[in-house]
Amino acid sequence: MPDGEPSAPPAPKRRRRFKWRGWLRALHRDLGYIAVGLTFIYALSGLAVNHVSDWDPSFANFEREYTIEGLPSDDDETAAAAVLKHNAVTETPVDVYRVSDELLEITLERSTLHVTLPQGQVFEEGRDPRTFFRVANWLHLNRGKKAWTWFADAYAGVLLFLATSGMFMIAGKKGLLGRGAVLVAAGVLVPVGYLYFIGSP
């Protein structure tokens, strides 16, 4: 620059625009990761409960037959104790009932044993818990303590945020002002259409 000429003023700094969609995507991603565990529980439990008319989602029915030798025919309590010892059951029976001279019925919390005393034949029927589904259904149906209500409400809030934020993560024709609006409308029309054609409660 020649001597004596004034220097050019520095160019003004451009203010950086706040990229809110980047923050929205990051928050959507992180909350989505947090919600994965509960989403699996609620989704699988929901599928199980939806078909409750076809099966018991919390318990599996079973039947067993076996023989125990040397059961007394004249002492119900001793016979019942021998049957329970044979099965390594420490549970106290709900009821021990003599159905007939030969048949003894032992009722436990989740099974009933029909014992033919002279032959020592035992027919057992009952139900075993489906460990995962029983716990998942217990949580899904909010049968726990009141503290779980707060977790369930928080999870519902996270789902609402994920659904809402997902609509604004992409701009332009692929976002809410383009095909996103069509897809959102299609999702809304599914329950509305079902109620229209099938009828509301």
How would you briefly describe this protein structure?
With 201 residues, this protein is of the alpha+beta class.
List the helices and strands and how they pair.
Layout: H1 20-50, E1 59-67, H2 76-86, E2 95-98, E3 103-107, E4 111-116, E5 121-129, H3 131-140, H4 146-166, H5 179-198
Helix pairs in contact: 1-3, 1-4
- Overall number of strands: 5
N-to-C span: 84 Å
**Unreliable segments (pLDDT under 50, ≥5 consecutive)?**
none
Number of helices: 5
Outline, from the CA principal axes?
A: elongated
- What percentage of residues falls in helices of 4 or more residues? 40-55%
What's the story with the biggest beta sheet?
Answer: 5 strands, antiparallel
Spatial extent as radius of gyration: 33 Å
Average of the residue pLDDT scores? 89
Q: What topology, given as strand order, has the largest sheet?
A: 1-5-4-3-2
Helix-and-strand structural type: alpha+beta
Beta-strand content estimate: 15-25%
Q: Can you write the helix and strand succession as a string?
A: HEHEEEEHHH
Oligomeric state of the chains present here: single chain
